[in-house]
Design brief:
Blueprint (H helix, E strand, L loop, with lengths): L4 E5 L14 E5 L4 E4 L3 E3 L12 E4 L12 E5 L11 E6 L3 E4 L3 E3 L12 E4 L1 E2 L11 E5 L5 E2 L4 E2 L3 E5 L4 E4 L3 E3 L12 E4 L14 E5 L9 E6 L3 E4 L3 E3 L12 E4 L5 E2 L4 E3 L12 E2 L6 E2 L1 E3 L3 E4 L5 E4 L4 E2 L5 E4 L2
Antiparallel strand pairs: 1-2, 2-4, 3-5, 6-7, 7-9, 8-10, 11-14, 12-13, 12-15, 15-17, 16-18, 19-20, 20-22, 21-23, 24-26, 25-28, 27-30, 29-32, 30-31
Keywords: Disulfide bond, Glycoprotein, Repeat, Sushi
Protein name: Sushi domain-containing protein
Pfam families: Sushi (PF00084)
């Protein structure tokens, strides 16, 4: 389509719109077209135009580019006057990778030199863990959503933890950098051990069984005492997830009958036959023999014989006598 607007400039009189020699015609094109040829023609005395008339040719334009997500577009990328040789430069935001051409040029046929590129998130290599006790990873992307540990985009953070009864050797969190690299190395999980029981200060008369040395978390160590002694504390200890036994190591104390304190007005003659400096306590150790005698003003109530601490029952052989005032 060609549109020509002719303006007649007469150097003399113009009659009945007749173009006479000496007239000048100027030409312009409608919007969207460009003039090919002279913009003015002179009507010669020979009744010929001074040159061939021009023509209007549609101007070549490229369509505006669509915005590229997560990218910076610089140059002639948008608008209506995108003509041949115009260029548009495209670069991705940090954390994104360009797929395609970064520079597009408007060609003479009204098309761009290549298709529009895209920006895809930069990803870090999948997390890999070594050792029999595999660490656990919980990863969150920049938007705050959970993501798998095999598809980590730039800006994501992964928290590293270990299974129950293991301890982490390494950082507790790592982040995916815009370069596509992790900011730290992935650690390992090691078994949790408790101190050896034999390396502790253990009281006499105690023996242990079970996993008491090189004990791992949840292992159990049991204790027993030799005959004549009883355990004081827990007879079973568990290695906890903090690397410590859950209770103190027990002790073995000598088994005995209840101690027998001398009553008012009495004395134990088993340790002082002459009745001098007699003890005020009869210890309840097995086979211990005690005999009570009452002093002046008191009379004996109960057996007059020796009372023995029986080893098999840890009970006194008879009811313990006492002294009461004589009224």
């Amino acid at each position: 389509m060609r549109v020509v607007i002719i303006q007649i400039l007469s150097l003399g009189n113009k009659t009945n719109s007749v173009i006479i020699p000496g007239s000048i015609c100027s030409f312009t094109c409608n919007p969207g077209y460009q003039l090919i040829g002279p913009d003015r023609l002179l009507c010669l005395s020979t009744s010929q135009w001074s040159q061939l008339p021009p023509r209007c040719q549609q101007i070549v334009r490229c369509n505006p580019l669509a915005p590229v997500a997560n990218a910076l577009m610089i140059g002639s990328c948008f608008g209506e006057l995108l003509i041949p040789l115009n260029t548009c430069s495209i670069s991705c935001n940090p954390g994104y990778l360009l797929v395609g051409q970064s520079l597009l040029t408007c060609t003479t046929d009204g098309t761009w030199s290549s298709s529009l590129p895209s920006c895809i998130p930069v990803t870090c290599p999948p997390l890999t863990f070594a050792g029999p006790d595999r660490p656990l990873a919980s990863c969150v992307n920049p938007q705050g959503s959970q993501s798998s540990d095999s598809n980590i985009v730039s800006g994501s953070t992964c928290r590293i933890s270990c299974p129950y009864c293991t301890i982490l050797n390494g950082p507790s969190s790592i982040s995916c950098l815009p370069s596509g690299q992790w900011d730290g190395s992935v650690g390992t999980c090691s078994p949790i051990n408790c101190p050896d029981i034999t390396n502790m200060a253990t009281p006499d008369f105690i023996t242990s069984q079970g996993n008491c040395n090189n004990a791992r978390c949840d292992d159990i160590c049991t204790f027993r005492c030799t005959p004549g002694y009883e355990i004081q504390g827990s007879s079973s200890l568990t290695c906890g997830p903090n690397g410590q036994w859950n209770q103190p190591i027990p002790r073995c104390i000598q088994s005995k009958c209840p101690d027998w304190s001398v009553p008012t007005g009495g004395l134990f003659i088993n340790e002082c036959p002459e009745g001098l400096n007699c003890p005020s306590l009869c210890p309840g150790i097995p086979n211990q023999r005690c005999k009570l005698r009452c002093g002046a003003g008191y009379r004996l109530v109960g057996t007059t014989e020796e009372v023995i601490c029986t080893p098999s029952t840890l009970q006194w052989s008879q009811a313990l006598p006492t002294c009461e005032p004589i009224r």
